[in-house]
Amino acid sequence: MESSVGEVEALDSTPAVEGHSPVKFPPPALWYKTNATAARDDMWAYISGQVIVLVVPKLTHTRTVGTDVEGNNGEGLSPINSLPAGDKDSDSVWPEFYIFGYQRENYSCLSFCQSGFQYLPVKGAPLVTACKEGYVRVWNVQQNCVMYHDVHKIANNKNVNVVCVDWSVRNPSVIYSMDEEGCLVSWHIRKGKLKINSFGKINPTSLHACPHEDNIVAFGTKGGNIFIAEVDAAGKNNAKILHKVRHDEEVVGTLWCPTQEWNSNRSDSKNKSGAILASSVQSVKPPTIRLWSKNAEDRGIYQVWEKEKHGSKPFRNFSSLLWATDPNSGSSFLLTSAKHGQIISYSSDSLLPEFVHDVHQHSSIFGLVQCGDILWSTSFEPVIVGWNLRTMKVSCVIPTFKGVCAISSSPSVESLLAVGGNDACVRAVNFVSDYPRKNSVGPPVVSARMRSKIMALAWHPEKDNLIGFGTDDGVLGVFELCENRRHTTCFDRRVGGIVYAVDWGPPTRSKSLNMEQASSTKEKEDTERKSSVFLYACGGNCVYMINPSKPSNPLVSVSKIIDITNPQSARFSGVDSTSVTVACKASDIRWSPDFTVFAVGYNDGRVELYTPPFMQLKIWIKCHGRAIQFLSWRPFDFIQKKLSPSHKQVWFASTSNDATARLFNFEGLFDESFMADDTAKSKLLISSAATLRIPNGERIISCAWSPHDPELILTVSYDKTGIVWNIATGTPIARYFGHDSRLVAGVFHPTHKYSIITASDELIEDGSVHVWDYRNCPFQQSPPSATKAEKVKPFYVESGLQPAVEKEPMESVVEVELKNASSHVRTTSDTKSTTKKKKRGQSKARTLLPATSSMFTNSKNSFESEIRYLVDGVVPDAGSNADSVTQVPNGNKVEKSKEASGTTSDCENSDNDEDDAVTGESMFHLGLLGDFTQCVNTMKVECESHANRGNWEKGCLLATWMGDAEFVEKCVREGQVTETVVLCAKTLGKQVFITACEAYAEKLLLQEDISKAATYLFMAGQREKAIQVLADNKLYRDAVALIKMSMSKGHKIHIDTVKKWLTQLIQNGSLEEAAKVYCSIGLYGDALAVIEKRGTPAVWKTGMYLASKCGDIRKMQLFGLEYCVDSMMKGNHKEAKEAVNTYEDLKWLLPFVLTHEAVFHLSNKLRDAKSCGEDVSVSDSKFKEALITQMDVETLKNSDSATKIKETILVALAQNRTDAEVILTRTLVLMILDDPEYKTGDIADFSKVLGKWFDNEPYFQSAYVMAFNDIIT
Question: What pLDDT does residue 645 have?
Fold first, then answer.
């Protein structure tokens, strides 16, 4: 066998491409936060959960403060020089992504210093981040934390979420940060000074320091308030609020304009200049962007989105903000996002917005940053879009991945790949030539998100726009690729477990199908079989199939068909079937490309090959020792068969948990006569053509054949590497070590011969998807030695509030991979031994009496003295004979030592509960073997010992045994109450239980476990307080449920809670829900007033009913009018008549409905007659044509006609019913007789014409007799 290097040379003589490093697809950005992205001219960054992603794009120009643009040759000017080498000289527009900073808590916000690289206050460190644990950290471009503080955590005496941070442009030495409790911390880096200012519980959402004036900051809140404050970072003055302005919705962005010359096109602001603050909100109403001056003057309002379509469901729009610079003119303009992913801009020259782009389709945009000429945007859709502001064209569209579980290649469109993973959506990515380095301007087609991660994918073999998928909760479905459509069809029935594989194939059936039923349905089944391809799935240890065109059908168990067709007695040929244990747990499936063979892998390492339609077993393979992970047919063989019938090779690959991949060549085994003979015995295969074994013995998860070279196959495994093998020699030729986590999927690049795509289902400090050139990765047994970067220990900035206990939050960690787990558990180094014990499964029951446990087995007293004490109740004096005793008052004898007075000795504490011992020569450790009093004394010693070590729960358990309420009350007073303590208190009296419940509820409130806290308050008898807690935290449904269960009807707290609930629902635009709540308390009038704001036909119909209940006749007639007009314009006259006949006060509308219905049907009838060329009389033709022209269906639906009718009826409302009917009927008839000849003609002639038309139409005749009664008579 030749060396791996030689294999590479023999395979291709083309030299490896220099400078092409692997391309990594980044993880997705954080949602619903504008301060989760930040930028400077040479780089930008965003937050992705527990990691930070630094992005270094191609630079075109520099705008950073304090730099020499024309001659920046100083040391450290460009951060790119300090980063790992990438494709700097390539013509690719794909930026470099650096993922770093992995930690246990999530990051919340970040910001960049805008100064030039040589002017940074911390050398080489331009980035600051904040997290949900209260830490603020500064990072350098080598992705190391260089300094940090935890003032927010110390000031609040708990872990607190730092929701916004900003690095001041005006004074680069100052960093401002603000937490959810309203504490604003100003950090002067050069002076090492930290200053805290508290503004109370204001729920801040955004923060930005003014770039034009010192010490001025602005921050927005969830309540819609915007505060402009003066914060002296270096001085002694406290912060003070200068001004307060307000939005009606939650503020999501506050941003100062970088220039003071912005003109907001208002008549009162033409001559004004100064700092301008822009603010944006998220709202179900049409949101706006407001402009304010530093003195809180209103400087302009910009509308963000267009009017919502009539009757559509409210959509919460998130309006992100960015002050950008035009690369061509250098002027500033304001960018924001619209409701469907459009980006629009506002300039100081025009009030009207300008459209920028809509590459983000159907997706809210959360992050907007400008880096050089490129505008970068992140959204709910998993893509990052780069837009060139100089050329106004797409620079690149970058898909993002948060763990990938499956990759599938399209059989009909060679460049398409389907990718699914942890973010529960399916992506169709077009890997055209040299993608992603080039041609990366096309966005992927992304499905709507589902509820669980995508585990398996398969393209339809004939329809290139249909993808089958399976999820980890057993859901099967299909995703159809359509423009502007993201909907997926999920089947009604689920698989009983994780879906490991899906594939498309012809339907199968059982041989035992009833012959009569088979003969009656044979033709139908044959037609269906020829015209459809079924979706197969492997999950829950079974194989199923379903017709995708009938998603409501039950799943068909293919495993049962296999068992029926192949009984165990005749299943295996050439072996003793009694010695074979058949494990029916299927683990993977794969149809051959020509649908002639169906392969199934099992958990015991078997692979069985079946032929359709009855699933007759032909070949079974037993070469693996553990579960099959993946099966794959070589497509090249089936393509060659179509081109050359003489081609007989059929290569097949299988991977397993036994760390091997087996290759089989079925040449000669697939004899046509053998495959077609259902009576032929199955063949056993116990050897493979080649065995691919990875060096370190980790399981091989997947494999893929090269579409460019039939001799190459790729394997990926849990050892974090992908290996390319040459099957001709069975040797590895390339190995990629670039991943930091296990691999689960991999394919060859569909259009680039030498590129490979590998994917991981985890995200630590690594991209989930890598694209690499295997020519640059020659095979090695171990990863290449890399120069370890010098670890920088971050400098901790003392707060001065209290001694810093935790000075190093970035502890060294130990990774422990749990079995059957998809993520790593990270523990601190001091718990390493404990973790190992848990991993080995070693556990031991612990005693509640540790203080005396050791003394009982290893006492310092002699064995004789302990026996004498137990038998005679005496303890010998120290240094005397055994007869010296002391008599106890109750008749027992006790020792004469100091402990004889009844006091107990001190306990010696130990780290191990089981090894704790008590010093001294007392015998109280034998109290458990004595009488009741002695046992109680021993247990009290144990309780005190537990309390001294902080194990209050165990002490309370012992106190419960003794009935000692005093110890439990002491535990509550010390603030050590837990759920166990409350349960113990329940047995010790009502008052003790109430006190414990109240204390535990207060503790739960601090932990924000609201429902549980309310439950304990309810248990303590404080029902009103429990309800109030739920209502204050907006859990109104829970509060109302508790009220119903515990309060009398009409209680004041019930009314107050419902009012708060209604206020929130109305503010959120949930008018239907508010109406339901109003009706539940009998306020029908208020419900009517609420739904009146929503102008939809469904609301009009409901409004009629509520108005009738309230006795409001006028509103009922108005709602009835709207509903009837809408129904008739749609041709639904039946619904309109039902509404009119239901309510007595709407009877006056009946002539109007009947007239409209008659004209509607008549116009249809005449149009049909005219279209068919029927001859009509000359006397009637003019009237008929006028009727067709003026009153056909389209005209009836015209809004102008509807408006005319409405205005007429509104006039009629002031009349009585008779007058209203006359006005309505006359108006409608005049609309029909709009022709001058008939308007002045004899009404009798008109009646005769109608009679001729309706001789054969009694329905129309009766309608007109009723409708035209007033006019004709």
Answer: 80
